[in-house]
Amino acid sequence: MASRGSNQQWKRQQVSAPGKWCRTALLVACSSLFLATSVVAHADDTTHVGHLNLSGGYLWFDNNRSLSDDFVVSLGYEHRINRRYALEATLSAAEPDTADGSNDIEHLGIRLDGLRYFDVNPLPTSKVSTYGVMGVDYIKFDAYRRARVNAGIGMRWEVHPRVALRGDVREFFTTRDKFRDQQVQIGISLRLGRGARPEAAVVAPPPAFSRPVPVVMLDSDGDGVPDYRDQCPDTPPQWAVDETGCPIMIPEVIEHELPVTFASGATRFDDEANLAAVAELAERMHEHPGSTVELIGHTDSQGPASANRDLSERRVRFVAEILTTQHNIEAGRIQATGMGEEAPVADNQTPAGRAENRRVEIRLETVREVPKPR
Predict the structure, then answer these.
(1) Which CATH class, in words, describes the domain spanning 249-371?
(2) CA distance 52 to 168
């Protein structure tokens, strides 16, 4: 009798234990969820965020359990430590049948998982992310109680700043019995609390008022360009300068007249004065390679006019020959013209006047760069 009473008492404890265990688990889960939600709701100044996860799925039991596969529901709280890592506590429940269908078995489990998130694309603002999960759980089938480990992969899609859809597949392994169970689930994830408080904008203080200090720029030569930019110091004040303080150069045309004279009826000369005048002309032409010279021959009024014109032409050819042969002046730079007796510069009625008219005029124009006056 005592033995039968003891067996009946064990059966009553066995039958009542699942309901008591379920109520205790639900109480612990709800209390933990309430505390975690309160912490997250007041954690405005941290990066931690909480999520309430509601899921439904399907559970495939190991064939050695002699249980039929069944639907499973779960309620979990996920605490996002940062953008990459999270912890999740989950309460799950199912009611599989025995293999012969004679009885429904109440299946309850409490699970603690660690999650590692990965972005599908490298953008920080990605709305879709995948995650890997590993954890441990404690399950109960009536009087059967075991600890398991699990691992799986999942995907999360943010459809709203506070709402996301998620789903994952997992495998559970009972180390003691070597049972392997598989589960797939999908569900909704609701963000809790207000999230991180935005940082207050930092307003820079207004700059302190300071009186401007006058800047004195020295201009030693008075050309209007400060010394620190003046590349040509000591420029005379009457010269115009550019922005660097250097003189502005302009071209200047210079006319040179060097007359040479001839004896009456002569077409040549060999005196030092005339030869020196031609040498001076050649030197100036070498100094100004782009210049040209004009030679104009003249005579007095003695003799026929036609003879005098021929005489004047022979005189300019002689001067041109000296320039080309003795001073290496190009012939193309020489213009020679004979005027005869047509352009006297003195009175042909006197010997002195006639001597002055027997001449070759040398006209040379050169160009040089000179400072532009102000």
Answers:
(1) alpha beta
(2) 16
